[in-house]
Amino acid sequence: MANTTETQPPHQVVIIGGGFGGLYAAKSLNNANVNITLIDRRNFHLFQPLLYQVATGAISPADISSPLRSVLSKSKNTKVLLGEVNDIDPQAQKVLMGDEAIPYDTLIVATGAKHSYFGKDEWESFAPGLKTVEDAIGMRHRIFMGFEAAEKETDPQLRRAWLTFVIVGGGPTGVELAGAIAELAYHTMKEDFRNIDTTEAQVILLEGLDRILPPFAPELSAQAETSLQKLGVTVQTKTLVTNIENDFVTIKQGEKISQIAAKTVLWAAGVKASPLGQALAQRTGIECDRAGRVIVEPDLSIKGYPNIFVIGDLAHFAHQNGKPLPGVAPVAMQQGEYVASLIKQKLQGQTSLPRFYYVDRGSLAVIGQNSAVVDLGFIKFTGFVAWLFWLLVHIYFLIEFDNKLIVMIQWGWNYFTRNRRARLITGKEPLGNYTSEKTREMVNV
Amino acid sequence: MANTTETQPPHQVVIIGGGFGGLYAAKSLNNANVNITLIDRRNFHLFQPLLYQVATGAISPADISSPLRSVLSKSKNTKVLLGEVNDIDPQAQKVLMGDEAIPYDTLIVATGAKHSYFGKDEWESFAPGLKTVEDAIGMRHRIFMGFEAAEKETDPQLRRAWLTFVIVGGGPTGVELAGAIAELAYHTMKEDFRNIDTTEAQVILLEGLDRILPPFAPELSAQAETSLQKLGVTVQTKTLVTNIENDFVTIKQGEKISQIAAKTVLWAAGVKASPLGQALAQRTGIECDRAGRVIVEPDLSIKGYPNIFVIGDLAHFAHQNGKPLPGVAPVAMQQGEYVASLIKQKLQGQTSLPRFYYVDRGSLAVIGQNSAVVDLGFIKFTGFVAWLFWLLVHIYFLIEFDNKLIVMIQWGWNYFTRNRRARLITGKEPLGNYTSEKTREMVNV
């Protein structure tokens, strides 16, 4: 019964990165006659859209993480490898990890992006970003330590600086962080301190453009701004950050330059692609854009290498309406599924293959407990209904992997109690922003 | 209407430590006419008896932690102070924190204990103990990284060493860790790897005495041993650890000395009291025992200082049946409540005060999913009923603080799915046990 294709060694697919792109590609290939190796630096898939909830003490990292091995334990054609890829050899068709070389027939590169300071890398220690579990734990440390330091501080000016939280960047992450910190200060923790009144805290959201949530329709941006203001957030648009120092953020509004005294500054302004994109570009002569993203062909392969695909936040795909697709989870998921289906079709000998087409099902961002903005294109809505919609969509995608019903119950509980029970200050945080000796001691305990 | 006692400044109670002893004391004083300052290095109370569940990936740190400020937010006479006490001045009646001095009328010292290596501190990097959230995260890192390293290892001997887990100490923590690791290897993760068979892992529990769980009745120790063996744990009693090195544990059984090749060694063998006990002893001339615990009077005060109480794991109380009370949560809770009531009675002018008497309601330890041992004195039982009893008791005490019903639901879910979803390898772990270059790279990702 055996024919020649069955006796050939199976087609080797190597996927680098277990984020939305890589994981959806692997899952879509689980019934294909291929051998898959999924390589990631971490042993878990992280549901990044909810990382801000970890940073603000609502949920724990494990609530939004799924061990890659258990997500893929039923995919018997898939092997998970823990490790960091440092280079790719497209001629030899090998992925290089230290002294190991892993051969591939088809390669999917999905290593994503990290936050970027537009060349001002020295800002990172004062204004951390939010991409990893460790980032979220560090941010949580800073936010809650800010309130603790204010409680101990006797100088009124310094106390005010400890109670000032500046979020740089008015995209979804910035809006979500600002809303969550405002809720912490004005609701959750208002009975918790004896020396300070947490409702005197200032939460300031800075955005360079003329409105927050620029990917949304202007009327939704306006409503989001109103909702944030109701929560107590000060929204400053058309505001450029020109410097971040230990205790100050310098901003430029039109011609006016001023300073905000703030001990806690959080960065939600920009991302740059994973350095593996540059490495690949050097090896293949392809181009990257200014953010380091790899410019891909209509089928997500790279020029001259039809067996190498780049997907997700690492890819610059501009074949749809001229500007690159945004770095969001739905794009990565659809690209992962598309590449998986393309590989299957190629293996079946099909030659007339469709190009990738992104189906934009809409954008959503949450502002606070009862408020969100949803833009589905054909319909736009805000407020409680939008919040409920946001909740359901996120739960749907969370439970798809790992039956995380528990997270839903947790959220229900938090919602009714307005609690954030995961307010742990743990780990030793690089000091950065913590200046006074007293605070330094406190952080080092 | 004012009388003299009302115009006096209120009695100042300072409590050092927000564990079971300190927190129960604070809560019991919440309706008393005193001002309370509770000082802790951390901003949360940790339910330590379940820390082994964090170390083995079943639950998250926040599931067994409660922010001290929210536990005490309704206690308007209580102030929480985040910081580390480095000394006590009993003559000036002050607690010293860096350059701050906090005055007290009554002092309760409840700073607990940490793990101890009986003078072999160099063992710590090879065999970490389990007292803090960071310890648990580090232990989780090692356990899961052991399986990952075995998956990558091609040398069969080294692979076997990566799959060998040695737990030193057959008390409740050691038994609980051994049972949980055996369940991970033989059930939870058995479908997860492609190169190794996790059911070939060895879990070895070492105990110096002639039986595990020495505080329990001998028949319960025997049954616990049988249950552990059924789970796949190798129990070795009358076994002394004479050395722990990078890849080996040296043991002595009678006159026989041998070595176990193991990459993961966990310490559950001994504790020593917090150094604040020694500092207090030097200042007051009182005595500590060999484990550094402060020897207390029948009312838990220290000799010559009726306004200084030492409670919980830091106290050596031997007035009940000659040997000191064990360092377990129920002792600390009862001591906290007793001291609170003593302070209230003294303030009401009562002079005939009762001494402390510990009501031992029994001991319990969990062995695995369906198995535990319970010794209530008048009745002893094991197996599933004991496990259910263990679960209910722990949930009762957990929800007392913080409505942690969520943890119960989580456990129910884990129970039916045999899942451990919190298997995250996070943080950068000091390398210690990780020897080969390849592994070192892997851990550093």
Automatic annotation (TrEMBL), chains A, B:
Question: What's an example of a GO molecular-function annotation for this chain?
Answer: NADH dehydrogenase (quinone) (non-electrogenic) activity
What domain of life?
Bacteria
Q: Reaction catalysed?
A: a quinone + NADH + H(+) = a quinol + NAD(+)
List membrane-spanning regions: 378-399
Against InterPro entries, the record matches this protein to:
FAD/NAD-bd_sf, FAD/NAD-binding_dom, NDH-2, NDH2-like_C
Alphabetic keyword roster: FAD, Flavoprotein, Membrane, NAD, Oxidoreductase, Transit peptide, Transmembrane, Transmembrane helix
Please report the stretch or stretches of sequence annotated as the External alternative NADH-ubiquinone oxidoreductase-like C-terminal domain: 361-415
Q: Where does the FAD/NAD(P)-binding domain start and stop, copy by copy?
A: 12-336
Any single Pfam family the record assigns to this protein:
NDH2_C
Q: Its Enzyme Commission number?
A: 1.6.5.9
Q: Which family does it belong to?
A: Belongs to the NADH dehydrogenase family.
The name this protein carries in UniProt is: NADH:ubiquinone reductase (non-electrogenic)
- The protein's organism comes out as Fischerella muscicola CCMEE 5323
